[in-house]
Amino acid sequence: ELKVEQNPLFLSMQEGKNYTIYCNYSTTSDRLYWYRQDPGKSLESLFVLLSNGAVKQEGRLMASLDTKARLSTLHITAAVHDLSATYFCAGGGGTSYGKLTFGQGTILTVHP
Amino acid sequence: DADVTQTPRNRITKTGKRIMLECSQTKGHDRMYWYRQDPGLGLRLIYYSFDVKDINKGEISDGYSVSRQAQAKFSLSLESAIPNQTALYFCATSDSEGSTGGRGNEQFFGPGTRLTVL
To answer: What does the DSSP 8-state code read for residue B80?
Structure first.
């Protein structure tokens, strides 16, 4: 059974700083997804990582996948307030027959 | 128009009542899912359906049932609601494997239903 753990669970950042959210998973997962959730809102897909070594970037966010280490990272560059949200990683799909297992979520707050 | 819609958006009910949450999608996806979200626990899968004739239990199906009325509609029922079913419920959809244009099994979420059981 796939288990997904994120850390940190809470992250308070200053604007302009860099930081990384880590997503570890317990068994083989051939793909990894990152979602964003604003308070009281739904989940928005950010990145889909489908192979070892995959790297995707969108604005100040960059996600990567290392299937050998069973690790995905979400790197935040020069944080701005608009990035404040909860970020989830999820593993599965593929050999998990389409099911996703979500991490607990990382609540990111960016302050001046 | 939203691709994935859920009704109702908010519902307050009493212990023992039967509740149905509905999900509709216009994305043309075959696969549909129901999740619940609790603070600090992320999202947990309740049921999923890969087509109209395929229904599967997820991680936390006890106390819930589902119905896939059509490709575009997937309903979640609580036969006898209890307070620990108070949560935020999300419906999601995805395309079938091999037909996603390289996006794997990316899931698209509805706006959620906030359910409170008193």
So the answer is: S
User: What pLDDT is recorded for position A50?
Assistant: 85
CB-based contact B108 A45, cutoff 8 Å: yes
Q: Give the separation between CA B97 and CA B41, rounded to whole angstroms.
A: 27
Compute CA distances B118 → B11, B13, B38, B100, whole Å.
11, 6, 16, 41
**How far apart, in Å, are the Cα atoms of B54 and each of A101, B6, B25, B58, B68?**
20, 21, 17, 13, 8
More confident: A96 or A47: A47
At A81, give phi and psi (nearest 5°): -55, -35
Counting one residue from A and one from B, how many pairs have CB atoms under 8 Å apart? 62
Environment class of A51 (CB within 10 Å of its CB; exposed 0-12, middle 13-18, buried 19+)? exposed
- Position B37 pLDDT exceeds 70: yes
Residue B2: band (very low, low, confident or very high) from pLDDT cuts 50, 70, 90: low
